[in-house]
Amino acid sequence: MFTVSQVTPEVSHIKDAMGVNFTLIEGTERAILFDTGYGTEDVHSFIRTLTEKPVTVILSHGHHDHMLGARWFEKTWLCTEDFEEFTERTGKKQRDKVMKQAEDLGVSLPGDFMTAEIRMPEAIRFTEKTGPYESRTEELGGLTVKVIHVPGHTPGSIVMYLPEEKILLTGDNWNPCTWMWFPTSEAANLWRDRMKVLIQTLESDFGSPIGTVVCSHQPMPREGAEIKSFLEYMTDEQMKKAPAVDMGAPIDTHQVVKGDWVLLFDQAKIRC
User: Quick check: 148 and 198 in contact, CB under 8 A?
Assistant: First the structure.
């Protein structure tokens, strides 16, 4: 079952049965779907209950919980830097893990979940720069979407910015609980600095603070000021003294915690 939170009349944040979120952005002429979730239900049919406009499906990165739902679409788009991740995360080993997670959650899966074809995405073609980052502009009709490549959570991670709405969609490049401990993740302090530059660039280019942040693992939007405070708090000093945590992988994983803020990261990658 899908649950929709209406961020604005044009922005619908959708949670799937496994608890991950993706976002429909709709202009007067066309729409963008940012991610597709686990694919445990027919995402395409559900989106058609929300809009009849042409929909372009753009994946924030190559992790399974955000793009297994690509099986329901003929064409999707992804950064080439995450193509290898996409191939691995759509494979049998990952689907087996998702089946176990679904069983534990009591979520029914389609009968062909293990065998359904998931087409390789098309490469996002970046045509401009937003600050130091590759980007492209999508005009949806009365609504502009900046698609920006910001390596961090994965090498091909992208974010989106809606200047008319002052909304930043971060994918997994920022959640109040941000995971930067995967083998392909950037060093956490490099990611932090990149995100700071992104925010400074957007606020300078468009002349106003970011008002709202929409995250992949949060059903409700967060205030724009929160992401800036989060990034300021996650200093090199905090990372150096952060306690280790066991994530069940041979990675030097540590975490910084403040209230409901968590940064999980590979301390061995920190560049000081």
Answer: yes
